[in-house]
Amino acid sequence: MSIIKRSDVLFPSLMSEFLKPDWFGGMDNYKNDLPAVNIKENETNFELELAVPGRKKEDFHIEVDENVLTISSESKKEENVTEENYTRREFAYSSFKRAFTLPETIDEGNIKANYDNGILKFTLPKKEEALPKPKRMIELS
Questions:
Q1: Domain range 8-128, its CATH number among 3.40.140.10, 3.40.50.10490, 2.60.40.790, 2.60.40.1220
Q2: Residue 27 C-beta-side C-alpha neighbours within 13 Å
Q3: Rounded to an integer, what distance in angstroms lies between the CA atom of residue 124 and that of residue 14?
Q4: If 0-12 CB within 10 Å is exposed, 13-18 middle and 19+ buried, where does residue 45 land?
Q5: What are the φ and ψ backbone dihedral angles of 117, each rounded to 5 degrees?
């Protein structure tokens, strides 16, 4: 039996989460109450996607503070039905909060977010100095 510290779940580093041995197919960090996340690194940016279906854009609270990207959401649904001799009241409440420590190479001022078809997607651009340098030719003298 393994013990998972709550801080490991709430504050994973992008790279440490990406490089875990169980990244592809493992279930060690899967929790029913936290949305699943995909992290992909490209030459110029990172892409982070969370599966959070059934929400509206207004349900999300997103902030970046001291290299930590925090994503949280709360949704409430209530339904009251009164017919003849009975009253039925159904309600649902769900919330989550995930935080990711961003590498220092991320340009925090240009992070973009989009929510479409249940997927919350972030584009985390790399700073200019972190981008790959073009090849240069050196002439022999």
A1: 2.60.40.790
A2: 2
A3: 11
A4: buried
A5: 50, 40
- Give per-residue pLDDT as tens, 14-34: 555 544 444 334 444 445 578
> pTM, whole model, 2 decimals?
0.64
Structure tokens at 57: 């854009």
Average pLDDT value for residue range 55-71 = 93
Q: Which two tokens stand for residue 38?
A: 């995909």
| Angle 45-50-55 from CA coordinates, rounded to 5° | 130
Tokens of 133: 């340098």
Residue with the larger pLDDT of the pair 46 and 86: 46
